[in-house]
Amino acid sequence: MTITIQDRTAPRTDDAFARLVDRDLDRVWRFLRSLVRDPDLARDLCHDTFLRLRRALAEGRVRRLEDGLPNAGYVFAAARRAAYDHGRRRRDVVPLDAAADARADGTPHGDLERGQLGHALDAALNALDDDHRAVFVLSELEGLRYEEIAEALGLPAGTVASRKHAAVHHLRRTLEGMGHAL
Amino acid sequence: MRCDDYRDRLTARLDGELSEHDTRAMDAHADACDACRALRDDHRLQRERWRTAWRETAPAGLRQELLAAAPPAPDRRRTAVRWLPWAAAAALVLMLLPRLRHPAPERPAPFSEPCNLVVEEAVGAERTLVLPGRLL
To answer: How far, CA to CA in Å, does B70 sit from each of A47, A50, A51, A54, B67?
Structure first.
């Protein structure tokens, strides 16, 4: 006789995971691409990030849920850990110029729609150090609150505020120098 | 509020991160100062343009790949680590419980006086025995 034990939480987890992907995939993709600057690597890290999130949902390890889903701070913390772990394993740096060249050649990720300002923004972001870039992307471009960014990046909220302020001024100056002033 | 203070806090104001009191003070200054109001409008417009340029979507097919991926096996190592402190606490309680219920009686002195005398004699005899070449 075969006894089958059915995991009653599985359908619920699958449903929550599908909603999580719909809600966060694009912004996690953009965040990771800005961190590693290589579309292929960002794709791999997206897999890693969402695998971590799916496991956390299945094991009930997400403490603060919003509408049954992890909050933004938790999601981006998972993405950051995925990128960090990858960097620790590989101990290499993605060649920035190569990644930028690949995008300029036309990668199939909607680059044509982004226009000149999108490319200028990429170049200006690449000139920022990792810490300021992550804060700028999450706050100015993705609209997260400082508290959520602090959770995602493991920083005090005051540090988030000061890095954001510095990054905005740096980006404005850089883009003005590239002819993208308002 | 001075214009320098306004500029320093403009980013936090646009991010909605100031207190209600500070937000009112900032907005009152902008209403009264043409230069700061223009700077605020400039920052707002800049942000809109950045966000529009930033709106890149994930690669086609990535969503389906994620949904089609096999559900991950539970991380047994993490589960074990999660239970470890509770298991240690339970073991500690089990060890201490009998002592709490039946405290150990006060111990008598290690040896009574006659016992001490016997020990001293024994030690003395041993010393005597090991003296080389004299009393053996």
So the answer is: 12, 12, 9, 10, 8
Q: Which amino acid is at A17?
A: F
CB < 8 Å from B in window 30-89 of A: 30, 33, 39, 43, 46-47, 50-51, 54-55, 58-59, 61
Collect all residues of chain A within an 8 Å Cβ-Cβ radius of residue B62: 25, 29, 43, 46
- What residue ranges do the domains of chain B occupy? 3-55
Q: Is the ipTM of this complex over 0.85?
A: no
Neighbours of B124 (CB within 10 A): 10
A179 vs B: CB within 8 A: no
Q: Say yes or no for a CB contact (<8 Å) between B56 and A13.
A: no
Residues in chain B: 136
Digitized pLDDT (tens) for each residue of chain A, 182 residues in all:
445 444 455 556 678 888 999 999 999 999 999 988 888 999 999 999 999 998 888 888 877 777 788 999 999 999 999 998 887 666 554 444 444 444 444 444 445 446 778 888 888 888 888 889 999 999 999 999 999 999 999 999 999 999 999 999 998 888 888 877 65
Q: How far is Cα B48 from Cα B8, in angstroms, rounded to an integer?
A: 20
Quick check: A160 and A168 in contact, CB under 8 A? no
Type of residue numbered B136: L
Element holding B67 (H helix, E strand):
helix B62-68
Here the tokens at position A65 are 């849920």
Name the region of B69 (left: φ>0; alpha: ψ -120 to 50; beta: rest).
Answer: beta
Probe site for chain B from A140, A146, A164, A178 (most B CB atoms < 10 A): A140
Straight-line distance from the first to the last Cα atom of chain A, in angstroms, rounded to the nearest whole number? 74
Query: Count of H helices and E strands in chain A?
Result: 8, 2
User: Nearest-CA neighbor of A127 among A100, A154, A147?
Assistant: A100
